[in-house]
Amino acid sequence: MWKKILILSGCLILIGGVWFAGFETVYAHIMAFFTNILLGLSGSESAVSVEHQNGAPAFEALVTINGQKATISRRIFDTLYPTIMVLSWVLFVIIINGWKNGLKAIKWTLLPFFSLQIVFLLLFTNYMASVANYMYYILQDSFYVIALAAIIIESIRRDVFASGNRGQ
């Protein structure tokens, strides 16, 4: 059990180091790219980009409000930092349970989490609509809880911390 906790801690340190060395911006650009694809498919004139404001990356949405073009900015900390937890978990599952179970962890934790972050950015571009605004505020500070819940559910599903069990 302690060995697994140390491995998980090592995964957090490794992913955190890679994240702060520049992967944060890469991941933000990937999110903006997929969000813009969905916005383009829907025919929206809105777009999301990643800009640096005061030395920190931020999402910037180009939107139309009452016929006027406007930009809305949001720092990415609360939205993206929980991704470190999810990526660390996936790496941990790959190390402990092998690639096959690691791919399942990606399917059941990382992809839904990434999709929810994309939904958040879509809501961000439709900020002025009342329902979108309401959902945006619900989600904006919830990503840590969502990431933790996904990890706990996956841990129970895979029985990762049971002694002698390889999490089949």
Write a structural description.
The protein has 168 residues and is α+β, with helices and mostly antiparallel strands. It is built from five helices and three strands, in the order H-E-E-E-H-H-H-H. It is 69% helix and 15% strand. The protein has a three-stranded antiparallel beta sheet. Helix 1 (2-42) packs parallel to helix 3 and helix 3 (82-125) crosses helix 5 (143-158). The mean pLDDT is 86.
Q: Strand sequence of the main sheet, in spatial order?
A: 1-2-3
Shape: elongated
Approximate helicity band: 55-70%
SS field, number of helical segments: 5
Strand fraction: 5-15%
Order of helices and strands: HEEEHHHH
Distance between the ends = 16 Å
Alpha-beta classification: alpha+beta
**Mean of all residue-level pLDDT scores:** 86
Rg over CA atoms: 18 Å
**What about the largest sheet?**
3 strands, antiparallel
Uncertain regions spanning at least 5 consecutive residues? none
**Overall number of strands:** 3
